[in-house]
Amino acid sequence: MAAASKTSAGLFSTGHTVLRLVAGLAAIAVAWQASVLLFGIRPYYLPKLSVVLDAIASTPAAYAASVARTAAETLLGYVTGAAFGVLLGSVFFHHKVLKDTLFPMFVVSQTIPVIAFGAVVVLWFGNTLFAKAVMAFYLTFFPVTVNTLLGLQSVDPAQEALMKSFGAPHRQLFWKLQFPNALPQIFVALRLATSLSLVGAMVGEWFGDTTGLGVLLLQATYNENVVGIWAALLVASALGTLFYASVAGIERKVVFWRAEQ
Amino acid sequence: MLQKERPSATAGDPAKPILELRNVNKTFGSVAALHDFRASVALGEFVTVVGPSGCGKSTLFNIVAGLEEPDTGGILRFESRSVHASDLLGRVSFMPQRDLLFSWRTVIDNAILALEVEGVPRKKARAEALGLLPEFGLSGFADHYPHQLSGGMRQRVALMRTFLFKRELMLLDEPFGALDALTRAMMQRWLLDVWQKNRRTILFITHDVDEAIFLGDRVLVMTARPGGVKLEQRVDLPRPRSPDIVTSPAFIEIKRALLAAIEEESMKSFAAANFREYAQ
Predict the structure, then answer these.
(1) Residue A34 sits in which domain range?
(2) Whole-complex ipTM
(3) β-bridge pairing B75-78 and B46-50
(4) Of the candidates A120, A119, A102, A111, which has an alpha carbon nearest to the alpha carbon of residue A139?
(5) Does residue B128 belong to any structural domain of this protein?
(6) Chain A interface, Cβ < 8 Å to B
(7) What is the pLDDT along chain B (280 residues), one digit of tens a residue?
(8) Fewest 10 Å CB contacts: which of A62, A174, B61, B92?
């Protein structure tokens, strides 16, 4: 009974959230369009939303191709970065010496601005999709590593003692207790990394490419195509939001116990 | 199955101790938690341990569970063999104070945790646990998660997890400490019932004197820190014990003796605490 009512409450609140989201978006759209008309804002500063949407609708193929390209770069870097981060965090957790020697270096690596790094990456990997994925990877793996390590370390010592009293070897201690216990913390980093990896991919495109949202943004800036800038911005934020929401959705499924505690 | 039936009012056979501790000490830095602790627990016996707070009860349990090694020089014997504490890992069924349920596991999967660690296939372990649910008052809750359960139910899941880890000796550390009085009384009767059916050796920590007498064949009263055995009291009340036994003269007499011993120790630790404060 309790479970049933909880589930329906959950569904209801999910529906509610979507409704609120749509209402919020609509409100922003109306405010955008209305303020441009009401206050007579010059298109140079802020074009009308309708004009921006028109621009996207008139060349849908270009935007679709850019989204596909940028999404591919982001996703490739994100997935490999997340996997590497979880692996690295786990290795650090098990080998303290390795952690103490390598971890400071990873911290230093993160202080290198991604822009400076971008030039080198393009030199190494050329003007490829892979080069941009490397940028996304670089921004993703670090927070995931840190949170994996933190999550693994946050186990309740009493639960660990319980597992040991059952005679559990290290492998089981990890897979049955430490790793599942770390998942909520890992997902915090995975959510954060969605926007970071998108930034990485788009900045990577600035070092030379022909398709992609970063390219659209750069071209529009060079041509002082204000509508183009806003259109690229709008599409990029839609992609970022969708990406974030997907990961948050997976999070709710995987670490279901967290929200209900 | 007949030999498994427990003749009522008979304590375990003292000639066959499953656990023996002699001259067991444990110090943490400059603090002595246990000093010259000695006790022996017979096969099938239900022994309860009471004592003032901070008397080293939990240290005692951690040693018997294999989680902590006592200082060298003491004697620790299990199933008639001299052992290190760490040898006891995986050989004693240990239930800590808190339920420690894994929030990502359902009731049934929490219950079979120890079986899984032992390598029993999940399917088989689940089938076994499902059969036990009614006895633990958890019928219909197999697929619930811990956050959907009441405190009493969570404690029963933890007990079920302990019971499914089939070891002759069970250590229960204040399993009902966090429950309200009514639920606690119910759980005590239920535990005796389950124990009489399953016949295991139980070492049970509590700070509730009534609970210690009601459940135990024998009560050990611990001294203030460093913990040792102050008093060993047999409880010759007939089994099965009904709830109103707590008002019988025999019960009251035992309780009086225990309370006097505990009172004396509590005063000692109270005085020691006061003295330390004064000295600072």
Answers:
(1) 1-41
(2) 0.85
(3) unpaired
(4) A111
(5) no
(6) 2-3, 6, 156, 158-159, 161-168, 172, 176-177, 180, 183, 255-258, 260-261
(7) 344 444 444 445 556 799 999 999 999 888 889 999 999 999 999 999 998 777 788 889 999 999 999 999 889 999 989 999 999 999 999 998 889 999 999 999 999 999 999 999 999 999 999 998 998 889 999 999 999 999 889 999 999 999 999 999 999 998 888 788 888 888 899 889 888 887 889 999 998 999 999 999 999 999 888 888 989 999 999 988 888 999 999 999 999 999 999 888 888 777 777 766 665 5
(8) A62
Is the four-CA dihedral A244, A250, A254, A258 of positive or negative sign? positive
Inspect the interface and report whether the beta carbons of A164 and B66 lie closer than 8 Å.
yes
Query: B113 and A166 in contact by Cβ < 8 A?
Result: yes
Longest dimension (CA), chain A: 74
Report residue B84 as tokens: 């290190």
Strand, coil or helix: A115: helix
How many domains in chain B?
Answer: 1
Distance from CA of A6 to the nearest CA of B (A): 9
Does A151 share its domain with A34? no
Q: CA of A90 to nearest chain B CA: how many angstroms apart?
A: 20
- Inter-chain touch A161–B96, beta carbons under 8 Å: yes
CATH number, residue B211: 3.40.50.300
3-state secondary structure of A134: helix
In a 13 Å sphere around the CA of A117, the CA atoms on its Cβ side amount to 20
Check A158 against B118: CB less than 8 A apart. Answer: no
